[in-house]
Specification:
Among the domains are: 180 residues, Nucleotide cyclase, GGDEF domain (Alpha-Beta Plaits, 2-Layer Sandwich); 59 residues, no CATH class. The chain is built from ten helices and nine strands. Strands 1, 2, 3, 4, 5, 6, 7, 8 and 9 form a nine-stranded mixed β-sheet that branches. The relative contact order is 0.06. The N terminus and C terminus are likely disordered.
């Protein structure tokens, strides 16, 4: 079984220690204020804490522990810690002036420089305890510091101090030198009343001097505060005017952009409308030209058909005329060749009967042979009809009906 003793030794060896300036702050009469009006007290505490935190951050401080109205803060510099405490008390005093007397909230502050133990984000040790104990010695709205802090700042800050002597503090083995800050750059701070006898003249002179100093400081502070407020108001007005001008410029730019977009859109629509109109006109012209071409083709085809009909009719009439002329020539020839009397009549019969009137070589040769035979026999041609031998395949009528050559 292992020995458990090395574990505490290892933990002790791992502790981190450092020198730090501790500021302890607490609200005077916080329980009484909460009993009178809880909501107003909480709101006032929040307002005072916002000022406290802002100035603390400005002077590089860090809050490492809080408990209700109590605040424990750490500073890397003693000078910055004291300067931050005096500025906080001055700012909170200004805020309390605007509050009713029963709602005013005053802080006690104590500052100590000592060795502390680091445990995570928290600080422990006598350095923290001494700051908390001397904070209880301060008057409401006042600041108490330890001798170690006084030794660090006595020649570095223009402050006035009141020596409180060595104080035996609770749970602190050795007495602690304690001082109270009575005067700062922002004005007078509450002083610790001492039991030593002081003459009325000295008190009166001190009171007059303190009043004069406080009045002068307050007047200077009011003047600087009014100037600061005026400058802040003027800066806010300038910022508002600048913002309004910027917004107006942006609105004008937006209107200009929208107007240009509307003009571009209208121009595009106009161009599109003109293109559509031109396209419609071209389409109409193309349709008209197609219609005219179609009509011209139809008219040309109709004229061609009429010309063909006329040409056919003319050719038919020409053929008829040619046939009529040929018939007339044949008729004239037949009249010239055929003798008068009955034979001329027979020559005309076929024409009257619708038969062909063109004489054939066989019929003409037969008639010449008949005439020669009749002349040889001493008879007339008319009496030789019975003596003529008929042609094969033909009757006498059909033979005699042919015209002579």
């Amino acid at each position: 079984m292992s020995d458990p003793l090395p574990e505490p030794e290892s933990q002790q060896d791992s502790l981190e220690r450092r020198l730090a300036t501790i500021l302890a702050a607490d609200v005077a009469g916080y329980s009484r204020l909460m009993e009178q009006n809880e909501e107003a007290t909480v709101q006032t505490l929040r307002s005072h804490r916002s000022v406290f935190d802002a100035l603390l951050k400005q002077h590089h401080g860090r809050i490492f522990n809080t408990a209700g109205d109590a605040i424990l803060a750490e500073f890397p510099s003693t000078v910055e810690a004291v300067r931050c405490a005096t500025e906080i008390q001055s700012a909170l005093g200004t805020r309390n002036e605007h509050l009713p007397p029963e709602e005013r909230m005053l802080f006690r502050m104590g500052i100590n420089l000592g060795d502390v133990v680091v445990q995570g984000g928290d600080l422990l040790g006598d350095g923290v305890n001494v700051a908390a104990r001397i904070q209880a010695l301060a008057e409401p709205g006042g600041i108490c510091i330890s001798g170690s802090v006084y030794d660090q700042i006595q020649n570095k800050l223009s402050l006035q101090f009141q020596r409180l002597g060595d104080k035996n503090l609770k749970n602190i083995a050795n007495p602690v030198r304690t001082f109270s800050i009575t005067q700062s750059d922002a004005g007078a701070l509450p002083m610790i009343r001492r039991a030593s006898p002081v003459s009325r003249t000295a008190l009166a002179v001190g009171a007059v001097v303190a009043i004069l100093i406080a009045g002068g400081g307050y007047a200077l502070w009011r003047t600087s505060e009014s100037r600061r407020v005026e400058q802040e108001t003027l800066a806010a007005q300038l910022a508002a005017e600048k913002k309004a001008a910027e917004e107006a410029r942006q609105k004008a730019d937006e209107l200009t952009r929208r107007a240009s977009q509307a003009e571009e859109k209208a121009e595009r629509e106009r161009i599109a409308a003109e293109a559509a109109k031109r396209e419609a006109e071209l389409k109409t012209q193309a349709e008209r030209s197609d219609e005219a071409r179609r009509r011209a083709e139809e008219q040309g085809k109709r004229l061609s058909d009429e010309n063909q009909k006329l040409a056919a009719k003319a050719a038919s009439e020409e053929a008829r005329a040619t046939a009529a002329r040929r018939e007339d020539r044949h008729r004239i020839k037949r009249r010239r060749r055929c003798p008068s009397g009955r034979r001329a009549l027979r020559c005309r019969r076929p024409a009257l009967a619708g038969l062909s009137t063109a004489p054939t070589k066989a019929s003409c040769a037969m008639r010449r042979w008949t005439r020669r035979s009749a002349a040889f026999a001493g008879r007339s041609p008319s009496s030789s009809r019975t003596a003529r031998p008929p042609e094969p395949g033909r009757t006498e009528r059909s033979a005699s009906s042919r015209p002579c050559a």
